[in-house]
Design a protein that fits this description.
- It is a single chain.
- By secondary structure, this protein is α+β, with helices and mostly antiparallel strands.
- It starts with a strand and ends with a helix.
- Helices cover 13% and strands 27% of the residues.
- The chain has 2 domains: 150 residues, no CATH class; 124 residues, Cyclophilin-like (Cyclophilin).
Length: 303
């Protein structure tokens, strides 16, 4: 069991998500960086489907009455243990009976993932334990954690060896790589130049549904478009010309033209974007994007 003594800004139970429910308007969701989340699970001997915590900006204070084996991955946070032992990232940590783990503010980036041996045993909803905040279901009562919550932990896990992992690094200054979207032809030369040549600031009104960007106006023909299927990573451009990069809990349909789509290899970068960060885009061919995705699969970083 894990007791929540003090919640962070937004602590969510997450696993790999619930793909396949788009026809019901439910996005796949799941951990924002599957590679980092998967690395944390492997460090504690969990299978790929085990649920853990996604922690945003400022972390919680957690108590482990029976102790536990945990691992942290993603952005580094201020952290301390009641035992005084060091808290390290990408490494197996063994917590004593009754020990507390406190995570403070993020120190670069904005998201971290905590895996616990055995996984969190929240009820399955549409085949997943992930929290879907817009729908109010999944995770722990469909919401972020609160003080006084208690999370059950499973006991069925593989063998644990104290070890370190090295998830792919995240260069927060690198441009986001995208392939052309289905409506790229609707954008005039000025709009394309603004999108690929300009810099955009991440707006504070961003969340898991979408990353809102503020910068030069990306102009396009004001064509009336029927609602279309969209996926996480699609870059929609509303009439005001300010792009929206659809996130993990974003809509499954949309009516704004899609100028580009983020490649899967850059999802770790997207997961760490914080309000005020600057974003640039760089175009990539479809075949090159497929090759990078295949490389990720071969290395076991996604899926």
């Amino acid at each position: 069991m894990i007791e929540i003594l003090q919640p962070g800004l937004c602590d969510l139970v997450m696993d790999r998500g619930r793909p396949g429910w788009g026809a019901l308007g439910v996005p796949a969701g799941g951990a924002a960086d599957p590679a980092a989340f998967g690395a944390a699970n492997r460090l504690v001997g969990n299978g790929a489907d085990a649920a853990g915590l996604e922690i945003v900006w400022r972390g919680p204070t957690l108590r482990f009455p029976q102790g536990g084996v945990v691992a942290l991955a993603g952005a580094p946070f201020e952290a301390r243990r009641s035992s005084g032992a060091p808290v390290t990232w990408n490494e197996t940590l063994v917590l004593a009976l009754g020990e507390t783990l406190t995570l403070g503010a993020a120190q670069g980036g904005c998201r971290a993932w905590l895996a616990v041996r055995g996984g969190l045993l929240e009820p399955l909803r549409l085949g997943s334990r992930s929290t879907f905040l817009p729908g109010g279901f999944g995770g722990h009562d469909g919401r972020a954690l609160r003080a006084g919550d208690a999370l059950a932990v499973g006991s069925d896990a593989g063998e644990v060896h104290l070890r370190r992992a090295q998830p792919p690094g995240v260069d927060r200054r690198a441009p986001l790589r995208v392939v052309a979207g289905p409506q790229a032809g609707l954008f005039d030369d000025a709009g394309l130049a603004a999108f690929f040549g300009g810099s955009f600031r991440v707006d504070p009104a961003s969340d898991r549904r979408g990353i809102r960007l503020a910068g030069p106006a990306v102009t396009h023909a004001r064509a009336e478009l029927p609602s279309q299927g969209v996926l996480p990573g699609a870059v929609q451009v509303p009439p005001d010309g300010q792009p929206i990069l659809l996130g993990w809990d974003g809509p499954v349909t949309g009516g704004y033209p899609v100028i580009a789509t983020l490649i899967s290899a850059d999802w770790p970068r997207l997961a760490q974007l914080a309000p005020g960060d600057m974003v640039r885009f760089e175009t990539l061919g479809v075949e090159a994007a497929r090759a990078l995705a295949a490389q990720e699969w071969a290395m076991g970083d996604i899926g």
